[in-house]
Amino acid sequence: MVGQKRLENIQFCIESVLRDNICGDLIETGVWKGGACIFMRGILKAHGVLDRKVWVADSFEGLPKPNIDKAPEDKGDKHHSYEQLAVSLDQVMKNFENYALLDDQVRFLKGWFKDTLPTAPIESLSVCRLDGDMYESTMDALQALYPKVSVGGFVIIDDYGAVKGCKKAVHDYREKHSISDKIEEIDWTGVYWRKS
Fold it and tell me: What is the CATH number of domain 4-194?
């Protein structure tokens, strides 16, 4: 689902933080079958990196029903009804095993972002990839994780061009926190910026 350009962006961001010695782990919030996270772990292995973890954050039950009281921007969102988006933790772990990449540098955060991300034992992040589709999921991830992104680290937003709620969450968060780092396009939907 990610496509070639977004995979190349993941590689670019990881290799940039390694080259520039930007500290922090890697995370994806909303992993589906785990492909992007497996790719992240593979890049670390290819570079012989032993001191960074890949955090794999997902409900492993699909997307939540819209909470209109908390995020009216998600009104009418139907992602929760797409059964194919619900891939179990066991299946994602097996997918890592298929590439011999399931080890202690891979950590799983199972549950809704609002419950798992604020208390996740993550000290710092160098690459933070958000793929939560909805306004609420995107905002929950930004609020919990953006303060942990190191200066020089990257924030990647998968659904920016595809889901209006996601795009609005990004702009609302950036405006509230006076973030002016330039948003760069990856492809028709993915964007990223580097934290200054």
Answer: 3.40.50.150
